[in-house]
């Protein structure tokens, strides 16, 4: 017979599992622009494959893995829960990273940020050009696949540049809140720039959506979060 404590725990657990089972599945977000809108800097073929194939795969895999994880939770199968975590991190990170990435880009982007974000960049990196050079260098230097990031260190109240490998999500692995992400997986540029990653990184600055990056920065300063539709 279950003890009173066990009964209480089971009553708490069942609704939680029910909520997990009934949550909506993740979905591929629509782009806020056409596939060809970022040309000539990123061509339409890359954007279509990147969004409708690569990102969609992360979303589909994440939904499958979450369902399997829910089943393992219900069964108390800790071994399976542990075994699923690398896949959840990879596909969940891929979904999070790309959902941010699409909004970080705009056909009306480029140039420099304004206002408080620009002042913060100057404060933490010396100048916008030095910041741009540092993030480019970090992104070029990612071995294999990964991301270059501008993040917000909420403990220090300062901007910070970091690199993440594969699809590791910035906040989940470093604690930094993502403001600007640059995808340096080859599928983000190879069809146009071949294996010359520096050329891709030079071009991408022409489509950076500084309004979006500024919105994220201002939300961090206010202690809020820019939520994505994950």
UniProtKB/TrEMBL annotation:
Q: Manganese/iron superoxide dismutase C-terminal domain: which residues?
A: 113-216
Give the subcellular location. Answer: Mitochondrion matrix
**Which positions fall inside the Manganese/iron superoxide dismutase N-terminal domain?**
25-106
Give the catalysed reaction(s), semicolon-separated.
2 superoxide + 2 H(+) = H2O2 + O2
Enzyme class per UniProt: oxidoreductase
Extent of the signal sequence: none
Q: Pfam families from the entry? A: Sod_Fe_C, Sod_Fe_N
Output the InterPro entries linked to this UniProt entry: Fe/Mn_Superoxide_Dismutase, Mn/Fe_SOD, Mn/Fe_SOD_BS, Mn/Fe_SOD_C, Mn/Fe_SOD_N, Mn/Fe_SOD_N_sf, SOD_C_sf
What are the entry keywords? Manganese, Metal-binding, Nitration, Oxidoreductase
Parts of the chain that traverse the membrane: none
Has UniProt tagged this entry with the keyword Oxidoreductase?
Answer: yes
Domain of life where this protein originates: Eukaryota
Q: What is its EC number?
A: 1.15.1.1
Its assembly, as annotated, is: Homotetramer.
Q: What does this protein do?
A: Destroys superoxide anion radicals which are normally produced within the cells and which are toxic to biological systems.
Q: Which family does it belong to?
A: Belongs to the iron/manganese superoxide dismutase family.
Record's protein name: Superoxide dismutase
What organism is listed for this UniProt entry?
Answer: Felis catus
Q: Lineage of the source organism?
A: Eukaryota, Metazoa, Chordata, Craniata, Vertebrata
Identify the gene encoding this protein.
SOD2
């Amino acid at each position: 017979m279950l003890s009173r404590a066990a009964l209480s725990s089971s009553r708490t657990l069942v609704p939680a599992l029910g909520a997990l089972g009934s949550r909506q599945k993740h979905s591929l977000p629509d782009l806020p622009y056409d596939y060809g809108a970022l040309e000539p800097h990123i061509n339409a073929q890359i954007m279509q494959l990147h969004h409708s194939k690569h990102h969609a795969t992360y979303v589909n895999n994440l939904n499958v893995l979450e369902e399997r994880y829910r089943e393992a939770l219900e069964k108390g199968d800790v071994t399976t829960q542990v075994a699923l975590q690398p896949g959840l991190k990879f596909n969940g990170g891929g979904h999070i990273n790309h959902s941010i990435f699409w909004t970080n880009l705009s056909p009306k982007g480029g140039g420099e940020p304004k206002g408080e974000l620009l002042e913060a960049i100057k404060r933490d990196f010396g100048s916008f050009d030095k910041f741009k050079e540092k993030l480019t260098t970090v992104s070029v230097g990612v071995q294999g696949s990964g991301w270059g990031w501008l993040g917000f260190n909420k403990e220090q109240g300062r901007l910070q540049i970091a690199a993440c490998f594969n699809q590791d999500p910035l906040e989940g692995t470093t604690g930094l809140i993502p403001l600007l992400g640059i995808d340096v997986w080859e599928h983000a540029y190879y069809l146009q720039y071949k294996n010359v990653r520096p050329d891709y990184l030079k071009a991408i600055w022409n489509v950076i959506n500084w309004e979006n990056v500024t919105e994220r920065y201002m939300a961090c300063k206010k202690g809020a979060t820019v939520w994505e539709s994950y």
